[in-house]
Design goal:
This protein is of the alpha+beta class. Helix content is 46%, strand content 20%. Strands 6, 7, 8, 9 and 10 form a five-stranded antiparallel β-sheet that branches. It has a four-stranded antiparallel β-sheet with strand order 1-2-4-3, with helices on both faces. A two-stranded parallel sheet has the order 5-11. Strand 3 and strand 4 form a beta hairpin. The longest helix is centred in the middle third of the chain and has 35 residues.
């Protein structure tokens, strides 16, 4: 069959291409007439009954609109053929940038598209990638057990004077440099956690000394180098001065780490609890190690393969990241332009990885088929007979199957790469940042592992 159009392709800057179509009268004119005839059936114009508007009037009023819609329709109709014949890997939608309709019926259409860049994969065997081996030491185990103790702690109100680690609740009044309450400032109810004496900064030590021994009903005047509440006004020597009327002194009672503690957690002895906690930590450490290794592979690949992703993909990734930021931090008041500028590097990286991932999957036959998805679901159902029906229903939707396909392909991809890169083992501690004393004092979760999300 003779080709129904002509097309010229011009390379523009970066990944952009311009396609100039010429559609002949024998293709265009009948479809323009058909579109006008359909409009004539329902169009309403002053002075004419519906369906009775003369065709020459319909053509004069609506031909531009019909031709525009036909231009978009024809481009969409023939684009798959263009992609195949001219080996274009088009990303996103075509954008109509111009069209003209000649009297005899020839239609010229100009569109711009973005194409996927050429990606040359490196030799995976030459990639040197750090493989973290996260170890659980006896000290790490002690920290984890301490966390269990802190979570089991109870808070009680005490009548005696406050000591380090206590939380003082009361009404805080800010004072001016002369020692009088600031005009127009109402007292604020606050809770001040007294720091511990271990590893104190000067300002923390100063606060501890000023508030140590405070009792319910007592008023304490003190000054600090850091504001206690937002909007405070500093005075002489850049210090902030306050009076605190004490309402409560709260102390955290931490249970002893012994066999009774273990029994409260459904273990027969402290030794059994320790054994269980260590195994759980080692299991998590193995997962953290693998996740970190896969992330290092991804980062190394992105460094080794240099290309510019299509801007439409970057914009889509940026919109997704910005939406995620707004959902996770609704209270943040970051201007859209500033947020977009901050997140754009991550959006570029995301777009690059999408293309690189697809390239590796395609070239190395790692794509997951519908049959693979079905087989996985059935195996999952057979392994969990009591939940088989629920599992099949859960993966019944196309969206859920698509998510599963992505997960399976990602697993295949990383296993494939992990077997080929040069892994360089690096031993790491399970816990890196440890502030047990401060966490115990302030009642905050300041013990953290960089390997925990």
């Amino acid at each position: 069959m003779a080709q129904a159009y002509q097309v010229q392709i011009k390379q523009l800057e970066g990944n952009r291409r311009q396609l100039e179509f010429t559609f002949p009268p024998e293709l265009v004119r009948p479809r323009v007439d058909e579109g006008l005839a359909e409009l004539r059936k329902t169009v309403k114009l002053p002075g004419f009954r519906p369906g009775r508007v003369p065709m020459d009037v319909v053509r004069r009023v609506f031909q531009k609109e019909v031709v525009h819609d036909l231009a978009v329709e024809l481009v969409s109709e023939y684009m798959p053929e263009i992609e195949k014949e001219h080996h274009l890997d088009i990303v996103g939608r075509a954008h109509l940038t111009g069209h003209s309709y000649e009297p005899e019926g020839t239609l010229h259409v100009r569109v711009e598209v973005e194409v996927a860049p050429e990606i040359r994969l490196p030799e995976f065997g030459r990639l040197k990638v750090e493989r973290p081996i996260i170890q659980v030491t006896d000290e790490d185990l002690e920290i984890e057990l301490r966390r269990l103790q802190l979570r089991a702690a109870i808070e009680i109100e005490v009548e005696g004077g406050a000591r380090e680690g206590d939380v003082i609740v009361g009404q805080l009044k800010e004072l001016d440099p002369t020692g009088l309450p600031l005009v127009g400032r109402s007292p604020q109810r606050v809770a001040i956690a007294l720091p511990t004496s271990q590893s104190l900064k000067d300002e923390d030590r100063d606060l501890l000394e000023r508030l140590r021994g405070a009792k319910v009903g007592e008023a304490r005047t003190f000054s600090t180098r850091r504001p206690i509440v937002q909007g405070s006004v500093s005075g002489e020597g850049n210090r902030y001065t306050y009076t605190l009327d004490v309402e409560k002194v709260i102390r955290r009672e931490i249970p002893a780490l012994d066999d009774e503690f273990a029994k409260d957690h459904d273990f027969s002895s402290l030794a059994e609890l320790k054994d269980y906690v260590r195994k759980e930590m080692e299991s998590r450490a193995a997962r953290f190690s693998e996740q970190a290794f896969f992330e290092n592979i991804r980062e190394e690949l992105l460094k080794q393969v240099d290309f510019v992703p299509p801007e439409s993909m970057v914009r889509a990734a940026l919109e997704s990241l910005m939406r995620q930021f707004r959902e996770e931090q609704p209270e943040a008041r970051v201007p859209e332009a500033d947020l977009a500028r901050e997140l754009r590097p991550d959006a570029v990286k995301t777009a690059k990885w999408i293309l690189l991932r697809e390239k590796i999957l395609r070239e190395h036959g790692l794509a997951v088929s519908d049959e693979d998805v079905d087989a996985y679901i059935e195996e999952l159902a057979r392994s969990n007979p009591e939940s088989a029906e629920r599992i099949r229903q859960e993966y019944g939707s196309e969206e859920r199957r698509s998510d599963l396909r992505f997960e399976l392909e990602t697993e295949r991809l990383y296993r494939f790469l992990a077997e080929r890169v040069k892994a360089q083992e690096v031993r790491e501690r399970y816990y890196v940042d440890r502030r047990v004393a401060t966490a115990e004092a302030a009642g905050q979760r300041l013990i953290r592992s960089p390997h925990e999300g």
